[in-house]
Amino acid sequence: MISKTVANRGNLSLIDMVILCQDPYTPESEVYMTNEFETMISDFVRVKVGTYETLDDYYINRKGDIIGVRRRTMQVLKPKVSVNGYYQIALRDKSGNRNWYNIHRLVAFTFLTNPRGEGTQVNHKDGNKLNNNVENLEWTTPSGNTIHAYENGLCAKVLKAGALYKDGEYIASFKKKKDVVNYICKETGYSFDVVRKSLTGLVPNTNLQCYQYILS
Questions:
Q1: What is the rounded CA–CA span in Å between residue 39 and residue 30?
Q2: Along the chain (216 residues), what's the average pLDDT of each consecutive run of 10 residues?
Q3: b/e string for 138-161 if b means 16 or more Cβ within 10 A?
Q4: HNH nuclease domain location, by residue (predicted)?
Q5: CA distance 186 to 164
Q6: Letter string b/e over residues 178-195, b meaning 16 or more CB atoms within 10 A of that residue's CB
């Protein structure tokens, strides 16, 4: 049985915290926790908001669901969709300040090892910003995130139609820039990223400067 006088909440699992929230506490309530409800919440762990920092009052599972336990009450928290299309949640830090966090980063901090350290981003493998299942997330560099988006056509909504020219002669028109990049890749054998960077002027390639893409 868990005592209500436990001072160090940081050592308690979510199941322990739920038991402490029973008011009044009875032995029957602990028995209840060993059944169906315990199974439902057993995969929740204390949320990490950074590489090492955790918040004692919040628990998260591998799907990105978050439960808050404060003032002897607990509830499943409802996220909102940010202007950038990600699920966000407002959590209070240990000083009581309310901060907004992207849930995909909370899942990654909590369940995924970050081999690259600071300055990294979390990539959604399937391109769905609302799919925060840990199996769909990976740590990557900013450039790696961008390359993944282009290679999977995830930047199509910001790419515009245009016409391709080679040495000043018209070749064809394309609805999306990724289509013209793929065309040049097939013609030249260069990778998608090399062609894209050369075509946009980010990293010019002398062997590709014969191609010009004019937005329509």
A1: 13
A2: 39 54 48 51 83 83 88 80 86 88 95 78 87 92 64 52 83 86 92 82 76 77
A3: bbbeeeebbbbbbbeebbeeebee
A4: 118-145
A5: 14
A6: bbbbbbbbeebebeebbb
pTM, two decimals, is 0.56
- Token look-up 């002669």 returns 169
Question: Quick one: 2 exposed, middle or buried, by C-beta within 10 A (0-12, 13-18, 19+)?
Answer: middle
Alpha helix locations (H) across the chain?
14-20, 27-33, 36-41, 103-111, 142-151, 177-188, 192-200
CB 72 within 8 A of CB 26: no
Q: Please list, in sequence order, all residues whose beta carbon lies within 8 angstroms of the beta carbon of residue 37, skipping any fewer than 6 positions away.
A: 18
Q: How many CA atoms lie within 13 A of 163 on its CB side?
A: 7
| Distance in angstroms (rounded) separating the CA atoms of residues 210 and 21 | 70
Cβ-based neighbour number of residue 95 at 10 Å = 5
